[in-house]
Amino acid sequence: MRFFKSLSKQLLKIKFVQNAVAEKTDLSIFKEKPTPKMIFGFICITVSYIICWPVISVLGIISIYLKAPLLLIIGGILIWGTSHLLFMFGFYLAGAQHSKVFLKWITRLFIEKFSA
Predict the structure, then answer these.
(1) How many domains does the chain have?
(2) Domain limits for position 91
(3) Quick one: pLDDT band at residue 27, thresholds 50, 70, 90?
(4) Residue among 116, 104, 98, 4 at smallest CA distance from 42
């Protein structure tokens, strides 16, 4: 318990933590209607799931049929990388603001519980 009190005192020196406590951050942002930017982000995340493993599987079948393993090796890496970038872009669009609010909220709860 002393460890958490000591940690909370150290964390209170950080500007982000001070703002989280001062603003009394709550989760009311999650009740708002999604913006078009967020919806596009959700679409990007969904497409990233659709294109990744099914396309790599089909590419694997084609590479076996053509007896060209480099097709799967190089193509799989390119498709997986593209899918990963699309997922990160979608997460940035859909969840950046909500992630920051959630992190501030959980930080505020920790500080309020353990600093005395």
Answers:
(1) 1
(2) 35-116
(3) confident
(4) 98
